[in-house]
Amino acid sequence: MLFLLLEWDVLLFTNGWVPPAVYNHIATPTSLGMAGSIEDSGSALLELLRFFKWFHTTILMEFSNGSIIYDQIYNAILSLLARYRKYDVLSIERIQYSTKDEQSQKIALQRASDRSRGSYVFIVMQPTQQTVYGPSSLFSLPNAEDRDIFRSVLYLTTFAPEGHAAGDVNTLLANRSMTLYGTKAEKGIQPLDLYPIRETYNSVSLFAALVNQSLNQDKNRTLTDVEICSGKRLKSLVVNRTFDFPSGSVFIDANGYRHIDLILLTFNSASSSHQRAARYNSLQQTYILDKNVTIEWVGPAVPLDVPACGFSGLEGRCSDQGSTSAVTAGVATVTGSAVVFLTFSIILIRRLKSHHQTLEKRPWFAVADDVESRLDPITGESRKLFLRGETVLMENCGRWIFRGRDVWISNVKLSASTTDFTDQRIVTIFDMVHSCHQNNVNAFLGLITVPSNISVLLLEAFGDKGSLRDLLNDKLVSREFQKSFVQDLIEGLHFIHTSKFRKHGRLTSLCCIIDKHFVLKISKLGHEHLREIFGMNSVNQQVTPHETWKNVMWTAPELVASKADETDSHSDIYALGIILFETFTSLNLSETISLLSEKVPSSNLSSELVPDSVLQWIVKCCDMEPVHRPSIGVVQEELFATLQIREQDNLMSRTMQCLEMYASNLEDKVGERTQDLLEQRRLCDLLLEEMLPRVIVERLRANKDVTPKMFEMVTLFFSDIDGFGDFALANSPYDVIAFLNQVYSTLDVLIGKFDVYKVETINDSYVVASGLPIPNGTAHARAIAFMGLSFLKAYSESDFHGVTRLRVGIHSGPVAAGVVGTRTPRYCLFGDTMNTASRMESHGEPSRIHVSSRTADFLKTESQLLLTPRGKITVKGKGEMETFWLESRQSTVVC
């Protein structure tokens, strides 16, 4: 099935708990393990045992028909136990015991409680059965007499989502389930509490998010549906990312494997229900306790790893004391040796205490309480360092806050023979590192000793922009940044080589961190010196591709060939050449490794991305013979001259030089852009004034309100094209639009000659007003009358006259006017005057102007106009009205 989906390029979501062996086959380029691995639940159990220091355990497993999940968990736990020497499996026995009978389960717990008196704890693994914080999924609500025995039971189960977003999804799913299937969840249980529903929802949500990202990723070309939903394409978008859904956060690692968080539930006797005591972070493999919850133990405190009286109840202080004579003889025999041993112990303790007090006086000495994590975005809480066990120390590596400052913590494990952290050589090295103050060497801020693990935690200043390698992978390094980083790197290395350190020893682009001011700083100074003195290794070594080259890419060839451990300044120069090659090529790590594996030895190094003048110095730095490599002083002098770098230069000075160059012609550019802006604004204003009256535009430009206004007397013009309907039926839509555009363009030209305002055009209707938005006294009727005569003359003389003719109606009266809408705003007129003017047009005749008596009253004094009474006519909606025909007394219309 997996290979078939791979062939089809279909993304597979596996929502079942997967054993490690099966997952190795599922990790194909087109599959995702959404439910995580059963090994995660085993790790959670072991971490819980480590947290409470319980190292003696018994595994009880259920054998049920058709269920293999607990058998897989059992095998995973044994496999994990075998990795740690402290967990010695003395014997493995499988006890056949039925857990289906609830009363039998209670009896078993009661017997264990009676015998142990709080010395035993039962940890129940519930990987896929979510317990809600009421009745347990294994036990019904306990009776009052059974409450004490449940205090010895801890549950590890999956994480139930919370918050408003999860509540909305629960409501939606519950309503949909009731509508489609007529079913509802049991009281107190939400849909997302159920594992199959929650994981199916996560898979669908993740698939939708990936498809959207795939659709928007490549905007330069149109993708087909097959390309958008390609399994390989979608999986490449999901790895090493965290997705936040209402059902919780989903993190997918580089192999397409999801890490599942678990919660620890304990019994609350006061409320007879379960409560969440801690959350297990599977990615960091640590427990985060809820400070507001107190675990109720049967005994007075957390049960011991081994009971005071042993597992049999007859050991230690509870055993038979035997013959007192034997004890007396034993005491007499060892008295002399005990005195010598105690004397030696007291001297040793005092000496160690004196050295430790000296160590505490160092400014760089720190304790775990000095360090806290950044606030958790989910819980809003911070956590402290845990210094127990190697796995927990892995979690300590990373970004923390030390005395109010962001730091990066590295866990360095010393050799097993190193037990004295007050060794003068260690103190001397860290005194030197702490006193090292140079702008391109990362500051060493503190050290925390972990005697139980024979390791130290090193605290260095945190690089806000990551490492140089990170920026190169993201293609974020321009030419000016390249020069700045090269200058910082060479100056930092020059300082190290001329100081008491004489070398760095393990220089890589991963050690070159970038702070928030984009200044490169060399970190991990002094690590190599510790390794050479005591033997050590870094626990949080970063893993990179190409296993055969990841450790030797920056390592000088003489060290690789001889497998020598002692480095020198020549090996630093070799690493410098590799880093210079990385910086100027700006390729990602995989591309760089592939290119270097083909170009080494250095005589073959070449790249079109690297300037020839720089490439020759890279070749010299990477010479196969250490003695032929230049010193850092020569590199600094020659390479700075080649790249035209001054020692006083930095990224800020280079930026200022560019700004000065840009400012030299900035005034002319600003002038040109200003003229362009003014021209564009003029064009915008003209366009806006075509849509709205100028006075309205000026008020809008001045951020003034444009309120509707009442005009007591205006004259309105309505025209219609007679015969337009037949014309439209006989011609194509394109020809109809071209005809209207020709007509209205002709009329628009004539409007500019009169004191009028074009209101709108509706299909073949043309509406004009005079007397607004700026009142013009009684001239409004005259302006509309002469405009109407001009329209008739122009229409009759045009070549588009044909079978169509213009019909005009005019009326005067009050109207209300104002701007309507915010998207495509329009200046609109309202009132009965609009209706009457429209009726004058519709009751008129083609090629004639029909006016009302009110308009005629304004025009009777105009000698150039002829008003011919039409008599009384019946107007729809108005009754009888006396109207007139308007004509010109002259052949030429005078405006």
Automatic annotation (TrEMBL):
One of its GO terms (molecular function) is peptide receptor activity. InterPro entries: A/G_cyclase, Cyclic_nucleotide_synthase, Kinase-like_dom_sf, Nucleotide_cyclase, Peripla_BP_I, Prot_kinase_dom, Ser-Thr/Tyr_kinase_cat_dom. The chain crosses the membrane at residues 327-349. Its EC number is 4.6.1.2. Pfam families: Guanylate_cyc, PK_Tyr_Ser-Thr. It comes from the Eukaryota. It is a single-pass membrane protein. It catalyses: GTP = 3',5'-cyclic GMP + diphosphate. Residues 715-841 form the Guanylate cyclase domain. Keywords: cGMP biosynthesis, Glycoprotein, Lyase, Membrane, Nucleotide-binding, Receptor, Signal, Transmembrane, Transmembrane helix. Residues 1-16 form the signal peptide. GO terms for biological process: intracellular signal transduction; receptor guanylyl cyclase signaling pathway. Residues 380-641 form the Protein kinase domain. It is found in: Membrane. GO terms for cellular component: plasma membrane. It is an enzyme of class 4 (lyase). PANTHER family: GUANYLATE CYCLASE (PTHR11920:SF335), GUANYLYL CYCLASE (PTHR11920). This is guanylate cyclase.
